[in-house]
Input
Amino acid sequence: MQRRSLIASIAGLPLISRAASAATSFVETRDGQQLFYRDTGTGKPVVFVHGWTLSSAIWRDQLGWLAEHGMRAVAYDRRGHGQSTKPAGGYDYETLSGDLATMLDRLDLTDVTLVGHSMGSGEVVRYLTRHGTSRIARVLLVAPTTPFALKTADNPEGIDKALYDKFIAALEADRPAYFKAGMPNFLGNNADPETIDWALKIASQATVQAEVQCLRAFSETDFRSDLKSVTVPTHIVYGTADSPNIPSNARRTHEGIAGSRLEIYEGAPHALFVTDRDRFNHELLEFARS
Output
């Protein structure tokens, strides 16, 4: 799909109606939080873990389409995001990967294709470290923040903590302006206003408290040793128009996961599953059926 057709394909009524047909409910976590989720279709399950400050709504172009092609698609809102409850804490990866485990256990999902975007890649990897692969058949990591995003003496490819501090200060000072400034990186320079508004509305559903703590978590958590726990077939994808650190993250994640496959979307931004929907959906379907 060409990006110039983005407005027609994303804003069209058929896609919206497919997403709206998904069953919705809540799962209770071990500490009493309520996780909102969308569940549609039957067949082998594909479970989506969204990126920072997003929600399950960001996967609308995947859920209905997979269901129409004989798959079951499940996406949930991270605690503090979307329609899930919004506690003061619990935004570390031990807790977040435990939430993912609760979701998979309560729905009793097996033979799962687990898709993690951006921050969600860490939840996927930490889940496999703590809970194993008995429910997981394969993994797709999109624009990952793994293996370690923070610059340290033994991780020179990371980003200085001072820069993350600036991100947080800007977020707390003027959240709408911060998100709006990030849209070109998220959706590319040619996204239509309707798509931008849609993404901004999704981002605004998270609490600032959750956003700050999650940003600290994904920037400061070291997943380098966790990558050894990823023993199922794994694909890693990223776009060349994403943030400069993402190609390094993707390459190093690929190097740390034995037998993984790395694929590049030329010219695609951080949300390549939106801008390059057709390619992404077909490749995801082929992978999930394998």
Q: What stands out?
A: The beta strands are 23-28, 34-40, 45-49, 72-76, 112-117, 136-142, 234-239, 261-265.
